[in-house]
């Protein structure tokens, strides 16, 4: 018996790492996965003064599996409301995931 | 006249100093498209090494010195830091096509301090054999923090005021907006206030007009009072200031002479040369960002380092005559003022004035401000200090 | 003529990198992609003594495209059976992928 | 009103980073996200002489959200045509994405 | 009495040594929330440099020394390493609320050796001018590997026994379980034995009760005999031990004096100071993990380093009177025993005793064990060695 | 005879030099499966440091020397670089089972220059006290770039010719193919010309046959003329050559003596020892790739470094008798020729001859070519130089 899930993806600026993680936690998600990402969007702007000459990525990509679509949309709405006016970012969802194995879901 | 020719000679020889040579070298190889890369880990390590060294030497020195001498220069550092922000508020921000929050963030960054420029200044003073108070490097936070705090506080006050008048004036449209908003939050519409491939809009009002369906403008909780302590804390916690203060504390409270002399001191110059290379490459790569914003930023970035340096130099001379602050110390205070923050400042401002455009302030500081401070400011203020000593 | 595929995602501890890769290979998948990931789940535990002060991610995320759902489930079952008692990890699947171009699939 | 989207994923060699980004740009996508990736496919070959002893990943993974399937297929076709003869790589698509929040989409 | 006052003086001055200063500095800045970060690449490089240096100097020295002298101390190192595990098995593991596998892993880690603590001990001996056998650093693997092997073997035997009795006792429920299992593997149910946001359960039996539908418990293939060679191999292949042994071999077989004197030796102290900073920051960041597990771990981590050190010091003194092992060498043996592994040990244990909770053993070792070993152990055993020399 | 015994003595003592010791140590620990890892950031930093040092010392020296002396050796470097490619074209490429593009890429890589081998050569010359022209390191680009350009140009010409004859010969099948192609591009079929888990095919024709539905073969735009400047530019922009040229320019135009003497020079040998370790570990890890390709690559990689070195040594001796090129300089020219590029060459070739199999050329160069050049080539050519000096 697998468990249907929605997968919310949020790509935004690295400086928001902790703040977005907190929102995800507060929404009651059982966890999240985060990877370093680069990218290009409508705003070609780097958020920090970190050397761009170096080899660092300035974005982070969050992936959150939620048991229902509502929770994902709630997280996305809150992140967008709090940050997307001033920071670059995108949020999208895919509703056809199935969790095969997890410690809690 | 003699001073000028003296300065030009000094400037000519400065151009041959490794510090400046590597800076210019970095600009040139970046311009030529070189794939040379100083890895991020090395960059962070170098910053740590340099600022720990500055801290350690300061701490060791303070142990044996009369710390009350530091009071007046530290006070002047605070004054300079705050003054720089207000200068920006009433010059840069008044220029056509400049958003006030962007101007304030830029002024805050130019008021804040660059560890690498400070290190370069120390190297030149030592190469020229000009004595300076060993605690002078510890003036860093006294200018850095007040500048950042002032910029963020003034920007917050400005933004709140703007919002209130906006609410008053756009009452009706706001109502429409809110009902649309309710709809949106239920239907999860794609959102965001920045328009697509257009020019960066200069006022919030413009934003609204350019919106697509993907627009945002979510009702944000009102933040009424700006809290100062979190900003100070964030500054102190930054990696550059942390390393400086750690070194200071260790120099003051422990006996780190053995590692200082075998490790931190001998590697200082060499590591600085690599950092200068990075600064040069950075400067070039940020030029593009500077181009995207109003040209006034370039003008400001060209003039401000020297202006700020002169102000600090003037105040430093007051301390020179009042309490015997050395000419070398005066020069270092001026270099600190001329510098603009490259490591800790930008993230602090990004969080503190989120509506400001980072391309404006980072572009202005990194692409123009820092090279000017190092290439023109340091030889200028060191030259002035030598003239002061001669007199 | 595109090729339908299932995408299996496994997020688990970095120390298992080689062992999970071996299981994927043995199951007959044509390949896999792996990225460094951080994350939070039910067990907030780091597996290694590696400094957490540093900038490293302690998880890895595998993505495996398989021609059918069965192969993905088989891989997932084996990984969960061998490791999820003792190591943190999650496995989920998405069945609506289409491979457009590949050297072998 | 969310916006339906296709998500194109391209995993290929790091040396192609800029060239693939250019193709994506030219196809009119509003942006892309890129992460460093390792992996194994039909060709177990590293593209560069970069030390494999080090800790670097030699692949990149692009994720591009496109408003329609056609744009994604166009990008994928061009990347495959220009590079997949000589470089390793895979491209796949998932058509059931929904963009929740974005600055432009 | 005199010894005590002597020791306290030494301890006071140790507090001012750069080694300890940077360690405490690291704890403090981490506690204050500093964002200072020593990149992972730098950390790995420093570990490589320090252990290669220890290896090189050992190898160069062994070339000209009578290697048979090493036999007794090496034997004592092996004995100490194994003894430490059994002490843990019959003290820590017997305490209430402590899982046996967790206790064994913890004891294994405390029996294993920390390259950074060893390097810190060498620095203090050299600063104090106390002579020691140059091959003493090479005692590292003789204690490290036996401790890890013993811990893993004992844990495996314990676990197999537990499973057998569980199978016997839970025969019926097992049948139910298996049939459920078959069902599960066909339907791919989400699985995993650890419960959600609850406290870490202390027995496997508890786990079962807390299970949700996502539970696991897949029939694992029975591993009947523990193989020792793979554990030894894994230890030897770890980055720290590899660097030490590489250095040793190069020192023994080639003539690396030129690079040793121009590079590895002069950078040693400075790099160590940075590593101490990392250790301090690590210690603070692991406190949280330690809090999640039973308080007995903190008690163990406080007492064990000194106890282990005293045992090794005692054995070392036997070697001192029997074969003339120097007091400095005795101190170093004690420091090695007092240290707990921070680099290679944890991953080896994670793989070797997978059911043990890393929060327990890494928390105990990094947050408390290592600071105690460096801050209390090193001055203590060096002081004892000096007392021994005086007598 | 005497020379041979002399060489063997020298070779024996070379085996004990840290340079070679670390190289062999790296091979051995990699073979033993050690998890020791020199982080990528450190590797890049070391390469930067070494080549900047070589550049700086060259630049400082050129300032005070007669640069016209460099003309003949530089010309010979160019000739050698190009010659090496043609030798590969008419030997390696003619062997059974060798694809011409693979052979050309391999020859290009062996013609190109390795910064680490050059640095190792300099270290040995200095250790032996053999004088050499300080600008000799600056011969690097004069051999490196011509070799890469020649290989890429010849490969492009070859490939175009092949395509034309293929088009002529396979006219009918091509038509079928194209119509299939149209279908494919509408339906987005999985594509790619390399077959699955089979052996690497040696001709493009073979590829076709092994194709699955996932095959590719998209009509590519015809690139008619190879442009040379982009290849030269790409070489110059590579990180190794950038660092060398930057150092050269800074040494020539500024006064970097202070940082050179306090930083770049003293760290040179130590950093080189670490780089040698990396080279050794790399060599081992690439053996697997070499095994996948025809054995002739191993033979080529064994012979070519010495052959190329002898050619350059011969030309260098012409310069010795003609313009007084020192024996040390001759040896360095030979070492440069014997070396094969490890940093900038591979990506340049990957982009320039994309159809060549990187396993072939990187495997041959890294796994065999570089160790041979360092372990046999350097002592051989240094020994020859000493014989030349003695005569
Ligand atoms: N169409 C897209 N596909 C994939 N990622 C995107 C897309 N648009 C934006 N992004 C990601 O979202 C980040 C922020 O976008 P923006 O706010 O538009 O600058 C970019 O840096 C990308 O990483
Ligand atoms: N709900 C979730 N969404 C996304 N990733 C998750 C989720 N739960 C767990 N993970 C990932 O799986 C890893 C292990 O989870 P766990 O075994 O529950 O500790 C975490 O570190 C996350 O990277
Ligand atoms: N079945 C697969 N699932 C996921 N990723 C794959 C798969 N096959 C190939 N890849 C990725 O695509 C890259 C190139 O594949 P290839 O061209 O077959 O060597 C590999 O390095 C993997 O990262
Ligand atoms: Na300033
Ligand atoms: Na121990
Ligand atoms: Na060559």
Major protein interface: A-B, 28 and 42 residues
Distance between the termini of chain A: 13 Å
Question: What is the H/E string of chain B?
Answer: HHHHHHHHHHHHHHHH
Strand content of chain B: under 5%
Report on the biggest sheet of chain A: 4 strands, antiparallel
Average the pLDDT over all residues of chain B and give the rounded result.
84
Look at the structure and give the mean pLDDT of chain A.
88
Instruction: Characterize the overall form of chain A.
Output: globular
Structure annotation, total helices of chain B: 16
Brief description of this entry?
Chain A is an alpha+beta fold and 105 residues long.
Itemize the secondary structure elements and their pairings.
The complex is a heterohexamer, with 3 copies of chain A (105 residues) and 3 copies of chain B (391 residues).
Chain A: E1 3-13, H1 17-26, E2 32-40, E3 59-66, H2 69-83, E4 89-102
Antiparallel strand pairs in A: 1-3, 1-4, 2-3
Chain B: H1 2-15, H2 18-31, H3 40-63, H4 71-90, H5 100-111, H6 115-128, H7 140-169, H8 171-187, H9 204-210, H10 228-237, H11 239-253, H12 257-292, H13 296-323, H14 327-338, H15 345-352, H16 358-390
Helix pairs in contact in B: 1-16, 2-12, 3-11, 3-12, 4-5, 4-7, 4-13, 5-7, 5-16, 6-12, 6-14, 6-16, 7-10, 7-15, 12-16, 13-14, 13-16, 14-16
